[in-house]
Amino acid sequence: MIRSFLLVLYLLASQCLCRAQNSGAVPAPSFSVSGTLKDTVNFMAAGYASVSLIRSADSVLQAFTRADEQGHFVLKTDTAGAYLLMIAHPSFAIQVDEIKINQPETNLGDIILTSRKQMLDEVVITDAKAIVIKGDTIEYAADSFQTRAYDNVDELLKKLPGIEVDRNGKIKAYGKDVQKMTVDGEEFFSDDPAVVAQTLRASAVDKVQVFDKKSDQAAFTGVDDGELTKTINLKLKEDAKRGYFGKLSAGGGLPEYWENQAMVNSFKKKRKMSAYGIMSNTNTTGLGWQEREQYGGGGNSFSQDEDGNWISDNMMGMDDSWNGQFNGQGLPRTWTAGGHYSNKWMGDTLSFNGSYRYSKTITEGFSNSRTQYILPDTQYTNTNNTNNTSISQRHAANTVTEFLIDSSSSLKLTLGGNYSLNDGQTLSQSQSAASDGSMLNDITNLQQNRAESKALRASLFYRKRFRKKGRTISADFTGNWNSTLSNGSLNSAYSLFAVDSAYTINQRKQGSSNSLNGRLKVSYTEPLSKVVNLEVNYAVGISNNDAENSSYDRGTVPGGGNEYTDVFNPLFSSHYVFNTLQNQGGANLRFSFKKLSFSFGGAVSDTRFRQEDLLYDTTYSYSYFNFFPRASLTFNKSQTSHFSLRYNGRTQQPTISQLQPLRNNRDPLNVAIGNPDLKQEFSHTFNLNYNSYKMLTSSNIYANLSLTLLQNAISQRQDVDITGRRTYQFVNTDGNYNLWAYTGYGRKVVTDVYARGGIGGSFRHSLNYTNGLENKNNQLSISPYLSASYRKDTILDLSYDFRPAFNSNTSSIRTDVTTRYWSFEQQFDGSVGLPFDFRLGTSVLWNIRQRLDPQDRNNNVFRWNAYLTRSFLKDKSLVAKVYVNDILDQNVGYSRYNAADYVSENTYNTIRRYFLFSLTWNFTKTGVNKPSGDVIIIQD
To answer: Does 70 have pLDDT greater than 50?
Structure first.
């Protein structure tokens, strides 16, 4: 079925390309080179040799093939000129011949190869490869893929077969998201791929390695724990490690837009030093930040993952929604800076890696939302207008020090710290109306908050190998400390028209949160045979938490005129102290064969929670005994074709806020009720994955299917009264499941043309309760896609993507109400090199969304950007650029979220049309700004 579908996609893509080529366009010329390879000793055919056609002018690979059994080969190109013909075979010396192609067909006749055994000492073998497979790693020679002078790594990645980079900098390799990117195997600023790809110069890179990175524990013990991370490692050229390079950029435009950047990298053998600074209001807000949890903030309730780790959730009840990244909503002004240093000493036995980053962002935004709620017997609509301003500052420092004690043991120390200060103000006005237009409620809400967060974290990892191969022991200790202080105010006025009542809230809010967590895990591995390995582990963890949230009503001082005093309000205040103690033990058995490997095992844990409500002098105790089964099977059909099946079982404990919710009046129209009888949720997750990549055709096929079955799923029971006020409680339900799948296929269609197509989808079946009725929800989403790209060296670069999507939501409480709609996204990017060192580029993003209601607005957005650049100086290191963002001034912020019982649409302000002129100077003293001139071939 999958093959048939992919074949149809391929035929459609081929037909579209053929029509495009035949619609008035002049067919591109075609040239072919053929010949027959023979042995020098007995003049017999030398079959299965690798044959490459390389352009003499710049050593760029033009065509590649493999000779057949009789030694015959044919190569094709679309350009006449001087070429190098390179022939490689394990039994013969690599041979390079200069040839000229000026006729449609060039027959070289018999080509005699020299046996390696007969080679003399003066014969030099060049062994440089464009694409090489080394075990599970695919390695690209960077110089085989031409980039413009001073392009960053992200531009290089766009030219590598099987790798995609979207307009937001997100990187995919063979259909999977790249989660880590390292430089010479080490973290660089951070392991965020966007950070590295936008910082390093493409000309400094020697090799690009793509692989699935195992966990540190699995890499050390050799016992695969099934944890894989798609990773790209950049190996730098040796001369790039002896010098410096960077860039300075200054830009300004209308109306009042600015963008300035400075970056410098200095490498000397093992030492790396880098720094950067950015200030802008054009959505260039920085090089990327890790998740908020790593940069401080509250964290005072719990859940548990499949490894038995406890996870905190926020008990502060204060607004802390800014996560350190600009998501396109509002108008930002940003200042960011960072530094990085790494080095090795004592014969590489001692290494250090450290970085610091700072960010300040001021965001001003407004939004308008419209939400339609579906109830068993009626519907109502809520409209909301919000204005917000936030000022956020972040500091973060991280260090990693590793010491190789001897050849069999090592010690690794990781330290990190964060400090953040967030100021925010939000004014919102909303009202709800019944389906007949009658008013249900309205509310005006002004919230102000200032939060200061600090965090420290540390880990110490010791590992030891014994003489017997596969026998190891390791110990990992981690600790975290978090502290948050917040002060704010809440001013709210709301009316409930159905009961003819009105209320006001005027309160000061104050909160504090402190947590101290520690965990020690010891693992031991023992080889039971050449193919069987056993791992056993034990872990103990403790967590101590204290969260206080206080509300004070504004009270008038008798005879005090306009003076106010604070009166403590215990109803909307809380003070919790809660601690956890966890003991966990586990074992895994793994069988490894040449192409097949499988494992099974799991862990059991006993976790005890104790929560004290100091405000009301009550104590709650909870205890859970958990089992985490795990199994996996991997079949490597070849070095480029992989199949895997995985199963994981995990529990999800109710959070403190679900069992005993924080009394919170920040949204008086949505009130939470606790459920102390809530049980833990158990999920069974099955994942099926297939990936195959063929070098000769640059084709890639991938498919993934994931199914999650839930027992005692934590869901909601909600009741909406005649005023539109919602009261909800978390409850357990059965029968919930999620299904997710995607498949895709891409390949080189003709020279310089690459096409991709595929389809993804998800289906979710869930159960909740609305106004006492059981509500079964079905959510279906289907999204096919088709894309094509044409890249002609650095002269012409074109790409087009088409991604339609279909969504359907139904609920059993209202079978007459179904939410179905289509959306279409098209994207075109192109750039062309012009005479006199000019370059013209443009991009178009066209979104079309089906209307759900006649009142829907701004569903369709057509965003068109363009730029013109010119390079100056002898080495083209100075670039002047004129850029126009949103030429037609049609960019409108828009998002839509749909569930079974409501649909919400939101419009917001965002960056629209502006003009920007910039000058960028790329400086270097590394010797890597020129092509190396090495001869490049492809060899499997």
So the answer is: yes
